[in-house]
Amino acid sequence: xxxxxxxxxxxxxxxxxxxxxxxxxxxxxxxxxxxxxxxxxxxxxxxxxxxxxxxxxxxxxxxxxxxxxxxxxxxxxxxxxxxxxxxxxxxxxxxxxxxxxxxxxxxxxxxxxxxxxxxxxxxxxxxxxxxxxxxxxxxxxxxxxxxxxxxxxxxxxxxxxxxxxxxxxxxxxxxxxxxxxxxxxxxxxxxxxxxxxxxxxxxxxxxxxxxxxxxxxxxxxxxxxxxxxxxxxxxxxxxxxxxxxxxxxxxxxxxxxxxxxxx
Length: 263
Ligand code: THG
Prior knowledge:
Elements: E1 2-5, H1 13-20, H2 24-36, E2 41-44, H3 55-67, E3 74-77, H4 81-88, E4 96-100, H5 104-117, E5 120-124, E6 126-127, E7 130-131, H6 135-151, E8 159-162, H7 174-184, E9 194-198, H8 209-223, E10 227-230, H9 235-247, H10 257-260
Parallel strand pairs: 1-2, 1-10, 2-3, 3-4, 4-5, 5-8, 8-9, 9-10
Antiparallel strand pairs: 6-7
The protein binds (6S)-5,6,7,8-tetrahydrofolate.
């Protein structure tokens, strides 16, 4: 599974403060620690720490700050083209663009941006009217997204479909629906697009957040999930993900499988 470190996000108080104070050491420490724990991408999100006008410059500053201390590829987390372009102009390695809604008008803008920059693209099963709520409408949208990708010349292995997790206390049927999406997507095309989730969303507003995140991740991996934006600094969470992959024979068993899986 591709672990995307979620922590460099202005949604978190320490990062918000670091952005306001131009304190790059905080971001650099999070970049190094997440990489050491096995993050294959680092999510970079300005959050609402700054005004929309300032976001492109801040995104660029965050990218430069992180790249001073590590080479881990970046997932640029914004739905605004100018913010993404600012980040894309600064990255040293192919990035992940995170993310695009699935309305045609957005796909026609974002897919060419990914092609132009050699990036991967996260596409949400969400339109301007809101997130899609059931399995069939998500699968139908995924088919259309794949058609658009091929039309614009983006290989499907550069598409990450995000079926959009709801907090479990908002709609308890959604986790079960997502498992069906992770399974059914594999038969849409060969090769199929990848899947990704923003894992921590599932437990927002609940007690027992780590337990809910960890159980959701293990179930999702068993159903075929490929990537997760997650708290890679949560050792129990990473261990559970690596153990699930080992048990599914995606990772060779050895006494050091937990360490090997982080490399
Ligand atoms: N899909 C995609 N991208 C995403 C998301 C998604 N990016 C952002 C988000 N969702 C994933 N990242 C987070 C980061 C933090 C939290 C949830 C998801 C979180 N934060 C604490 C909270 O809100 O309670 C903040 C705690 C603090 O301030 O210390 O839960 O779904 N493609």
